[in-house]
Design brief:
The structure is a single chain. The chain has 186 residues and is of the alpha/beta class. The protein has one domain: Aldolase class I (TIM Barrel), CATH 3.20.20.70. The chain has seven helices and eight strands. It has an eight-stranded parallel beta barrel. α1 links the parallel β1 and β2. α1 packs parallel to α2. The longest helix has 15 residues.
Length: 186
């Protein structure tokens, strides 16, 4: 099972975030860390990513900043729904560069698959725990149906906990992602 920790966007400075990520990984043993820190400057984001890569550990994905990911030799990028196509990034990315795409329905998953993404991060499976939410969820049955339609591996996100993560895997997801389930200490 793939485990993806997503940073909480708290705006910590780059070096402090890298330290917090190392602590979180020591507790959670994750495969990927998606650095989602919109409040950091490009320089702070780059410093954070490079600092964490120097520490060793899980593969780093930079949220929606393929330029920063490539410049820092990160493992890859996580693209928001509606971002640049993975096909375009493949033209400039090094071999083995991982591209994940945020998806909210079957059509988005199939589009990510057709554009060459490595993983679809499907959300929200359940109501998110890290922010107020009143919209529709995919649910376990929806996850199961989308997995059956798609060839791309799907990572479940949104309201995933230690208790319900196995249900997502049983529904066909190859892994789980989250902020709250891997909570980084402040």
């Amino acid at each position: 099972m793939i485990r993806m920790l997503i940073t909480d966007g708290s705006g910590r400075s780059g070096p402090l975030l890298a330290e917090a990520l190392a602590q979180a990984n020591a507790r959670a043993n994750v495969d990927f860390i998606q650095v989602r820190e919109p409040g950091l400057t490009v320089r702070e984001l780059g410093d954070c990513v490079r600092g964490f890569i120097r520490q060793g550990g899980p593969r780093i994905l930079v949220n929606d900043r393929a330029d920063v990911a490539i410049a820092c030799n990160a493992a890859g990028v996580h693209l928001r729904d509606g971002s640049v196509s993975p096909k375009i990034i493949r033209r400039i990315a090094p071999p083995g560069f991982v591209i994940t795409v945020a998806c909210h329905d079957a059509e988005a998953v199939l589009r990510a698959e057709g554009e060459g993404a490595d993983y679809a991060v499907l959300a929200p499976i359940f109501a998110p725990l890290s922010k107020p939410f009143a919209g529709p969820t995919v649910g376990l049955e929806g996850l199961r149906e989308i997995v059956l339609r798609a060839q791309i591996p799907i990572i479940a996100l949104g309201g995933v906990t230690v208790e319900n993560a196995p249900l997502c895997i049983d529904a066909g997801a190859v892994g789980v992602a989250g902020i709250s389930m891997f909570q980084i200490s402040r």
